[in-house]
Amino acid sequence: MHESIDALSRGGGLAAWRQIADALEGEIATGDLAPGAQLPTEAALAARFSVNRHTVRRALATLAERGLIRASQGRGTFVEAAPLAYPIGRRTRFSEIVTGAGREPWGDLITHREIAAPPECAAMLAVPEGAPLLELLTVHRADGVPLSTARTWLPLPRFAGFAPAYERSGSITRALAACGVPDYTRASTRIRARLADPAEAARLDLTPGRVVIVVSSVNVDGEGVPVQANRAVFAADRVEVVVGT
Q: Which string of DSSP letters, residue by residue, matches 123-182?
């Protein structure tokens, strides 16, 4: 049963927004607000707690900073789901990992373009500097919730058809198969943490400045030839990276 702001305390020295945040956090902890559940609107919460919407907005911002809720533009505010275990090994497949966790995977193609290979990408893909590459910017989701955003580079002309194949399938694995790479393995992985930049935060529905996990990797085909270099930025509160041995 919901408590009113009067039942919490108006004269105890604790700000109203803090009391609202604590009340909602308690409901998340007890499961009254389940993972994935949509919170009431700001107007409804303001009416429930007899405060103005600015006070509610500050309480929700605090919960977002703690990683307990997520505001999705145009859709509303949702309770964050439990972190998804994301194993990294020789065969790392986003779709398989998400499906195995009982969630629906999908990848959105944001942009794609041809570029001249900069030194870092050239080294990762074992091609000359300046060689033509296909660069993609993508967002990867589980049940519609963004888990990661990535930049992916593939050699041209070998993967000239990759972008439309990815846009149709929403899957790196299926797009590679459409380009003649039926299987691939992970050759290298590097992992670090940093703060999200504004563009990453927007794509991941994160509060600006939240921590992200950056996973840089290279995949090779059956002949050991590099086919894909990738830099994925994961929302740190939504995944638990598990490194295989």
A: HHHT--TT-EEEEEEEEEEETTEEEEEEEEEEETTTTTTHHHHHHHH--HHHHHHHTT--
